[in-house]
């Protein structure tokens, strides 16, 4: 069998339910919530440290488009990527040290 043609669902080491429970035990979150938090944290880091266009940050953090990144920022952080970048110019945020992304206080 060609391993490049095997779908992920056909290769199982543990059940999906077991995987979800283990991820939750390790992170305190569902797999999707944990993944979203990690992607948002990475987007925050890029916005704080590098002058990349929002669309590029979105692609690098698997949000796909700037529009989707902006929507998640508004929902999760109460800000836009551009406003977030401006409020953390030259500073590393405490949010990067926390488990979950945090809203800016600026």
Largest sheet, strands/sense/barrel = none
Uncertain segments are 93-97
**CATH fold descriptor of the domain at 37-101:** Arc Repressor Mutant, subunit A
Given the helix and strand composition, which structural class is it?
mainly alpha
Distance between the termini: 56 Å
The CATH superfamily of the domain at 37-101 is identified as Homeodomain-like
CATH architecture of the domain at 37-101: Orthogonal Bundle
Q: Which CATH class of the domain at 37-101 is shown?
A: Mainly Alpha
Q: What's the shape?
A: elongated
Q: Helix segment count? A: 5
In round numbers, the mean pLDDT is 84
Helix fraction, binned, reads 40-55%
Oligomer: single chain
Domain HTH araC/xylS-type: 14-87
GO molecular function: DNA-binding transcription factor activity; sequence-specific DNA binding
Organism: Actinophytocola algeriensis
Region (Disordered): 80-106
What does this structure look like?
- The protein has 106 residues and is mainly alpha-helical.
- The protein has a domain at 37-101: Homeodomain-like (Arc Repressor Mutant, subunit A).
- It contains 5 helices and no strands.
- The protein has helices at 16-27, 31-49, 54-60, 66-77, 81-87.
- Helix 2 (31-49) crosses helix 5.
- The termini are far apart.
